[in-house]
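The aim of this short unit is practical: by the end, you should be able to scan a pair of folded records and say something sensible about each. We start with the first protein, listed as its amino acid sequence and then its structure tokens.
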Amino acid sequence: MVKTFKSILFYAGAVALCLPPVFVFVWMILTGLKTGVQNISYPPEFIFVPTLENFRAVFQQYNFFRYLMNSLIIAGLATGVSLVLGLPAAYSIAKYRQGKIGILILVARMTPFVSYLLPWYIIFRHLKLIDTYTALTITHLIITLPMVIWLMVSFFEGMPEELEDAAMIDGCSRLQSFLIIVLPLVRNGIATSAILSFIFSWNQFLFSLILSGPKTKTVPVAVYNFISYGKIDWAGIGAAATLIVLPVSVFAFFVRRTIVQGLTMGALKD
């Protein structure tokens, strides 16, 4: 009886936690499938004939495909550079117990992003890098690089030192040992770090709003196209938001086991 009651409480709590985000997600999709009149009707219409005209208009009128490609390029570059720089940094922190450097990186990650905007804008304007992939990739490193480092430190700390010692006895250098022995053993952590970094970079809004332009505008910023002085196109916003969230949500769904496995393995140490 007690076990049944605990199970009921568990599932009730799980439903209570999942219901709000699921409701918002479904409402967003329904908004994109309604016409402008249906979206402002009261009471809200839940039974209606869906239309794909809003999604068609997003691509035909607002060049949304280009914004998707910009987000893909910037998120991919930020993730790739973060792995190249973050993996050796995390290995060094774990190998040589450089805790103070780790805390400094954590503080940089916890600092509000708005505090970086003015210095970044001044520097990039002086270097004429506003509205370039270079500027946006560098700014997104503030998000992705500390994430890669902090996720990977725990993986490297759990690596048996005997494996590296054996490799170096056999003639490997420190770099060869890192590339040949260590990295293949922490591939789950690398995959988890890459996935989470890509998702956070894809959803970044503030840096892209200030530092992007017509050439490099990303999908979160492109939603502003549907907001004007006298009108808010709720149907267009719903369709655009669905196109932004749906690819990442589907991707996260298929790699959820990799994420959970990577985070769990990173938390286990001998």
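Turning to the second protein, read its sequence before its tokens, just as you did above.
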Amino acid sequence: MHHLLVQAAPAAAPAVSAGPALAIAAGAIAVLLLLIMAAKMQPLIALLLVSLGTALALQVPVGEVMDTLLDGLGETLAEVSLLVALGAMLGRMLEVSGGAGVLADALVRRFGERRAPFALGVAGMLFGFPIFLDAGVIIFLPIVFSVARRLGGSVLRYALPVAGGFAVMHVFLPPHPGPVAAAGLLGADIGLLVLLGLVVAVPTWLIAGYGFGKWAGERIQLPVPELAPEAEQAAEDDERPKPSAFTVIAMLLLPLVLILLNTGLSTLSEAGVLSEDAGWVQAAKLVGESPIALVISVLAACALLGLRRGMRPAEIERQLTDCLGPIAVVILVTGAGGMFGAVLETGGVGQALAGVLRGLGIPLIVAAFLIALVMRVAQGSATVALTTAAGFLAPAVHATPGLSPAQICLLVLAVAAGATALSHVNDSGFWLIGRLLGMDVPTTLRTWTVLETLVGVVGFAITCLLWVVL
């Protein structure tokens, strides 16, 4: 096996040395868990207090503390707030029109009750090829909840295979930004990365997403969240004709097609096939940006699932406004999780963790996994961990002779696996999934954290096997 031969150029030294920085980070996470789980403090307040205390303990300059907190909060909210809000609106139109129930019935008839979690998970993987984890889960939740109500049992039995499907596609497959950025930094071939990524992602989902999802759903009983019981009841009482399953599928596919248009045009532009400066290319890419694609889909749903069925504009407006209340806490707590991650990153915790591994002479593929893992634990975001770890590894990869194109792709996948595992309280996705499914922190740790860790470990094991074989 190849070994880590060179070290990346050192970053600016943090104010606190590695040992104390790691101890402060561990203590901060422990205090946060105690405040939320034992003291039952509201998570938003707990995250703010712990982030503030951690920033001061890590000796972030006092004049920069608020900027660090607000930057972390703002960057996370910029990524998720519009997606969550518009996804909730699309989901509400699916609910009040009866469309979610129509598609749920169609899935159950087609695949049977026993295979419903498998069918939902496969759909999650297919839809997860072009769309991000958070937006995809939000769009799919009405379908998941409808199937869970019809078939009974824990909502985790149906939700975890779907979330796992989106998760493996998000981290292992282009055109998602993490693997694309890592491929560029390490010099991996995108086409070969897609092929090997599928070889890793599919069995990883079968074991970690579908297998663990069914296992957890049988042991952890979690009811379907009643985020909008009035909408569900309105759909049942509505005597107007229900939309067809084809119309509902079209509403789900529309944002995905638009987003895929964006990624496809970006890929062609980077390859020089299309001109980046062409006006029509820029316009088409703008339409395919996730928030724009979702707002177009919401407008289409209002027309096809609302106005076409006889709903009045005032009724549609009321439904879209009412659905924002229950998800406000989801947005704010998710943003606060990003704030905590930003503090740890600014305080040099990730740099300290990576420094522990540096210069140990371990195999390159193992170093790729471990460096990404410590970056993930330190700052939360899988995409940031993937990109940062790839940049850290790049000098070593470029200086290692004899690496085949397949091995370089496998290094990208090893980094992706490490960047997935151990999602916890500094990951905005941890709060998003937990709140959307109505889980408390202990249940989220037992389900989402374990699922993400299994995705990372299983994906890395398959990657290592391919490394030996290829």
